[in-house]
Every structure is written in structure tokens, then in C-alpha cells.
């Protein structure tokens, strides 16, 4: 029983660290200048993005391209600029994290 609890705590810690690492990546790539996890700033809250795209099979690919190339018209008149400082792998990691928000 103690061993099972220890394994659960260790796995939970790894998941928590991964979630924090992705929040750190979002900060490092300047995403937080226009977004936050739970409130609209210039762009939508990440939890609102996750809710809007929940269950859409192509959401990860679509949003990865939006992070890389920018976009407009989905969340209002203010466009999201392209993010040349973000690699495709980083964009995909960020999108997976954004889509996991509740």
C-alpha cells in the first residue's frame, strides 16, 4: 500500500512538473504578454481556447500553425502575430498545454 502511494505521488509530481514546465515555456516565449490561463488579456484565456477547441480532432495541428504563423478573426479584431521565436516543436508543446487547461 505504501509503495502504491509513493508511486502515485511520484507520477503526480512528474505531471505537475511537466505542467509547470509548459507554463514556463509560455512565459519564456512571451505568450503571457497577451494571454493568461484564466482571464482574457489582449488575446483569449487559455482555458477559453481549450473549451472552444475541445473534441476537435484537428485542433492541435490548427493551433500549432496559428502559434507559428499568427491569425485573426477568431477571437475578435486584434490579430495574433506570427511567433518566429517559437519552433514547431515548442508550438506543439504549448498547444498541448493550452488544450489541457480547464
In short:
The protein is built from four helices and no strands. The protein is an all-alpha fold and 102 residues long.
Q: What would your notes on this structure say?
A:
This protein is mostly helical. 57% of the residues lie in helices and 0% in strands. It contains 4 helices and no strands. α1 packs across α4 and α3 packs across α4. The chain is globular, with a radius of gyration of 15 Å. About 14% of the residues have low confidence.
**CATH evolutionary superfamily:** Cytochrome c-like domain
In CATH terms, what is the architecture?
Answer: Orthogonal Bundle
Write down the secondary-structure element order: HHHH
Domain tally: 1
Write the layout of secondary structure elements.
Layout: H1 2-28, H2 46-53, H3 59-69, H4 88-99
Based on the model shown, name its key terms:
Cytochrome Bc1 Complex, Chain D, domain 2; 102 residues; globular; mainly alpha; single chain
Amino acid at each position: 500500500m505504501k509503495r502504491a502511494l509513493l508511486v502515485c505521488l511520484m507520477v503526480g509530481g512528474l505531471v505537475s512538473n511537466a505542467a509547470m514546465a509548459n507554463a514556463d515555456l509560455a512565459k519564456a516565449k512571451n505568450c503571457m504578454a497577451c494571454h493568461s490561463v484564466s482571464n482574457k488579456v489582449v488575446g483569449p484565456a487559455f482555458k477559453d481556447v481549450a473549451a472552444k477547441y475541445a473534441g476537435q480532432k484537428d485542433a492541435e495541428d490548427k493551433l500549432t500553425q496559428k502559434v507559428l504563423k499568427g491569425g485573426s478573426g477568431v477571437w475578435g479584431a486584434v490579430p495574433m502575430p506570427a511567433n518566429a521565436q517559437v519552433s514547431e516543436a515548442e508550438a506543439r508543446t504549448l498547444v498541448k498545454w493550452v488544450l489541457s487547461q480547464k
